[in-house]
Each structure stands twice: as C-alpha cells, then as structure tokens.
C-alpha cells in the first residue's frame, strides 16, 4: 500500500515516528513530506526519517495564505499520478485539500477545537477524523465535519509520543547543564506564531513567572524560535535549551513543568511530572482531560502559579491511575481500512 504522511509542526514528528516505522516494517511504501518550520527538519533527522521538504511557514495572515497556497500547488505536483492509496496527517492544512482534490482518502488527527481557520479549511474534506472523546462533536460539526466520519477515543494525541520511550536518567549530565539549585523546572513559552493565538513573539507570559521562581529552582527554557530565546537570555539560574533535545527525558527528570503551550504540558501529565498550564488562550478540551484526571493544574494568575509551583516542587502528587485507548492501533487500523488493505 502507498501511504502519504504530511508533517507541518514539530510535535507531529514524534507523533508519527513510530507509525512511519510500523508501516515501513510492514512493507508499505511511505512518502513523508514536511514543511520548513521550527525544528521539524532537525527532528526528522534526529529520528532518522526520510522526507521531502515542501513549503514553509508564514508569519502574517497574508504570508500564511500565500505560503499555504503555494504549498498546495507544490504538494499536488509531487503527489499527483503517484497512485497513493491513503493520506495521513495531524492538523496539516494542505494535505486534506490536496488529497481531496486528487481523490485520495485521508485520515486526519485533530486535537484543537479552537483552531477555527485550520478546521474550517480541512474538516469538511477529510474522509475520517480521529478526535479525543472530550472534544465536543457539535463544535466540529460547526466547522463542517461529517459526524459519520468522526472516530472518537479516550485520551489525547500525546499518547503516541511514548510508544517506545526509554528514559535517559543522565539527561542533565549528557546536556552538560549547570544546575546549582536542588530543584529544576522546565518552562515552555506560548506558540506566538500560531494563527489561533494573537500574541507578541518578543514577549512571553512566562517572564514574570521566571522572575519569581528563579530564586527557588533552576529554570530550563525550551524556546520555539530565536526571538523567544532572547527574552530569557542572561537571567540568573536560567538555562536556554537548544532543540532538538530529548524533551521526554527532560520532562521526566524535572520536578515541575510550567507551560504556556499545550503539547509539552500534556506530555508532562502523561509522564506524571507535576505540570501547570498557563496557556494564554481558551482552555483546550485536551488540557481539560488532564485537569479532570488530576494530572494538570490550570491557571494564568501569577500569584496562583507561584503558590502551586512551590507546592508541587516540595510535595509532588502521588501516581494517578488513568485509562486511555490505544491510539496507535486506532490509527494503523483506520489507515489500512481507508487504503483498502486487508491487513
């Protein structure tokens, strides 16, 4: 079977890496395309994934429109006539449009119900949509999704990141980090360049949090791009990590994660490292899933963040048992079904 997978954001590399390997081991012909954005290409190389680079990210609305339109054309030229049986993506804007136009069944993985523009452009065109149970199906229908095409599961997409995870207990030493204080906190700034979040990429909601907590713990900052790194340069007890790095081992080795984004917060919840979400937008349903299970604390109030942070690093929560579905199996099964395979 011929499978096309498109990767448009850095977390999607870890999401798809084991799926790609599985299909290749099964003898399927897999083509992976990836746009130039953030650390995508570096992560692809780190995980030894062969790919074709197509297109890049736009910053302004006009740039986003033009870059996406150009990427559709370039992908169509690449994919057309190659006889693909099925296409697979997670929040790629272009894959559903190209696949629909070329008559290729597409499987779409969704976890952000607030990404209005992206969802309107993609959901009506997808053959099947895999979505967490906690996301309101009516919201997806408002974007044009066919309820008969929605496949629901208990959990979130970050479960895929840990299929073959092996914890590196020496991660801090391997990175050569100077950590003078007893406790260590990992912080991830907000996704300022995303279309669904209107924020200044040269500022961060984490700045006042760092100013307070740097006296109590080592602070590791994992920026998304150069401008974010510059915000935190030269601050006492603050180390700026240079991706790509083994973020899973870093999360597990830290005493606390404070994130203004989404993916890393949910990864911390799965690994059961205490995590505080201070994401500046509306609370995502997938974050609420972990809040409901006692695995994430959600607040944007500086005093509350500080209070909870100090509480967590002194008294971390005990392991919490929570059950999820096998998302990996769900993706593999539906990919083969859409592609017409009997595997």
Task: Write a structural description.
- This protein is an alpha/beta fold.
- The protein is 38% helix and 17% strand.
- It has two domains: 2-154 and 326-339, Rossmann fold (3-Layer(aba) Sandwich); 171-314, Rossmann fold, CATH 3.40.50.2000.
- Helix 3 packs parallel to helix 4 and helix 8 crosses helix 13.
Key structural traits:
seven-stranded parallel sheet, 343 residues, 2 domains, alpha/beta, Rossmann fold, single chain, six-stranded parallel sheet, 38% helix, 14 helices
Short description:
It contains 14 helices and 13 strands.
Helix content: 25-40%
CATH class of the largest domain: Alpha Beta
Oligomer: single chain
CATH level-4 homologous superfamily of the largest domain: Glycogen Phosphorylase B
Number of strands: 13
Nearest-integer average pLDDT = 92
**Structural class per helix/strand content?**
alpha/beta
Q: How large is the radius of gyration? A: 20 Å
How much β-strand is present in the residues?
Answer: 15-25%
CATH architecture of the largest domain: 3-Layer(aba) Sandwich
Strand order of the largest sheet: 3-2-1-4-5-6-7
List SSEs in N-to-C order.
EHEHEHEHEHEHEHEHEHEHEHEHEHH
When the domains are counted, the total is: 2
How does the major sheet shape up? 7 strands, parallel
User: What is the CATH T-level topology of the largest domain?
Assistant: Rossmann fold
Q: How would you describe the shape?
A: globular
Q: What is the distance, rounded to the nearest whole angstrom, between the alpha carbons of the first and last residues?
A: 10 Å
Number of helices: 14
């Amino acid at each position: 079977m011929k499978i096309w997978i498109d990767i448009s954001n850095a977390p999607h590399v870890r999401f798809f890496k084991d799926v790609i390997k599985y299909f290749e081991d099964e003898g399927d012909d897999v083509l992976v395309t990836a746009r130039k954005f953030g650390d995508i290409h570096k992560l692809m190389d780190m995980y030894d994934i062969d790919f074709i680079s197509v297109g890049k990210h736009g910053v302004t609305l006009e740039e986003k429109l033009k870059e996406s339109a150009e990427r559709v054309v370039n992908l169509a030229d690449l994919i057309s006539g190659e006889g693909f049986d099925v296409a697979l993506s997670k929040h790629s804007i272009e894959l559903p449009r190209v696949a629909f136009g070329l008559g290729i069944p597409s499987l779409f993985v969704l976890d952000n119900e607030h990404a209005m523009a992206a969802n309107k452009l993609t959901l009506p065109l997808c053959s099947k949509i895999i979505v967490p149970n906690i996301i309101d199906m009516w919201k997806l229908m408002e974007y044009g999704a066919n309820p008969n095409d929605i496949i629901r599961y208990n959990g979130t997409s970050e479960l895929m990141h840990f299929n073959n995870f092996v914890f590196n207990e020496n991660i801090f030493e391997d990175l050569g980090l100077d950590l003078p204080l007893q406790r260590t906190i990992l912080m991830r700034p907000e996704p300022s360049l995303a279309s669904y979040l209107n924020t200044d990429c040269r500022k961060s909601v984490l700045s006042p949090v760092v100013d307070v907590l740097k006296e109590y713990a080592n602070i590791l900052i994992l920026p998304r791009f150069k401008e974010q790194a510059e915000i935190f340069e030269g601050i006492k007890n603050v180390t700026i990590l240079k991706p790509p790095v083994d973020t899973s081992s870093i999360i597990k080795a830290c005493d606390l994660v404070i994130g203004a984004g989404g993916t890393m917060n949910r990864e911390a919840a799965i690994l059961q490292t205490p995590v505080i979400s201070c994401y500046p937008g509306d609370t995502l349903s997938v974050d609420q899933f972990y809040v409901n299970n006692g695995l994430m604390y959600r607040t944007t109030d500086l005093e509350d963040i500080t209070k909870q942070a100090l509480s967590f690093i002194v008294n971390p929560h005990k392991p919490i048992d929570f059950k999820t579905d096998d998302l990996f199996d769900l993706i593999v099964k539906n990919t083969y079904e859409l592609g017409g395979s009997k595997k």
